[in-house]
């Protein structure tokens, strides 16, 4: 790994690869080497740590309360959290619940890092489930060819759900809230990827076959900023 | 013969926690409710700090399907508001559950790039 700085969005897929194949990540940058070694440890982070890594497999997948509690603890000291407590709780609960409910995944992974100096938090959620297009096909019979995975993600952002209409709000509201907080969202699923920018724009990417993700990654990067928003202004229905 | 109490009160904070976030937590709550012999259950929401949309949806569905009479007590204003939003949404979309209830969000979609 040549990067001089690694974020959860890039590191989590690598940690998953290491976890599943026993691969070893090497870096010539001491700080990156030390960071990867620290976050790869199977035991819980030390008190006061600004990161969280949770890898869950098979029978351990279960309800996500434990992961959520740790995410809430991690964010408890941030300004973002103190100003926008309900919005932050909403984001965490919807994204962990999405994995629990929709993905049909055997494995689920979460990594979050709070950057006190940069004043932002990045949280990545990843699973090895049926992908967003796979979930929509399984749930409502809408077929997306692999090369149209990006359209499935855009449809999910528009409110389409693999289950009932009420469930279509999860991802859409999460993106709206993150954008309202000045943050951005990256969603990668199958051969599709989408970046939802704070200004409301959406950048779609079609991945080549060899770069397809067998599962889904949702990553949020949110600045602490000075904004205070009301969750309830963003709830639809 | 044991006397069956008509009504039993459960403290939601003690059963689930102060942050009501996941659908799976609702499932466990209603499993506990189903095991109670009383026909009427009072759920005390005092000191609950947050209820997610998913939790609210699953809770309202579970309550509607439950064979018991379930009554909420001491609902904090934000929790009450979330329940109202979701109840309204469920009612509005009940006729066609697979159609998104609101218009699709209009995106400023850039041309697709290949990676």
Unreliable spans of chain B? 97-105
Mean pLDDT of chain B, to the nearest integer, reads: 85
> Quaternary status of these chains?
heterodimer
Helix content of chain A: 25-40%
Q: What composes the largest sheet of chain B?
A: 3 strands, parallel
* Strand order, largest beta sheet of chain B: 1-3-5
Q: Give a quick account of the main beta sheet of chain A: strands, pairing sense, barrel closure.
A: 7 strands, antiparallel
Q: What is the molecular shape of chain B? A: elongated
SSE topology string of chain B: EHEHEEHEHEE
- Strands of the widest sheet of chain A, in order across it, are 1-2-3-7-4-5-6
Describe the structure.
The complex is a heterodimer of chains A (237) and B (115). Chain A is of the alpha+beta class and 237 residues long. Chain A is built from eight helices and seven strands, in the order ααβαααββαααββββ. Chain A has helices at 8-21, 30-40, 65-75, 79-83, 85-102, 131-140, 149-157, 169-180, and strands spanning 51-57, 107-115, 120-127, 184-190, 192-196, 201-206, 213-223. A seven-stranded antiparallel beta sheet of chain A has the order 1-2-3-7-4-5-6, with helices on both faces. In chain A, strand 4 and strand 5 form a beta hairpin. In chain A, helix 5 packs antiparallel against helix 8. Chain A is globular. The termini of chain A are far apart. In chain B, strands 1-3-5 form a three-stranded parallel beta sheet. Chain B is elongated, with a radius of gyration of 18 Å. The model of chain B is unreliable at 97-105 (pLDDT under 50). In chain B, 41% of the residues lie in helices and 20% in strands. Chain B has four helices and seven strands, in the order E-H-E-H-E-E-H-E-H-E-E. In chain B, helix 2 runs parallel beside helix 3. The N and C termini of chain B lie far apart (73 Å). By secondary structure, chain B is of the alpha/beta class. Classes of the chains: A alpha+beta (237), B alpha/beta (115). The interface between A and B is large, with 52 and 42 residues.
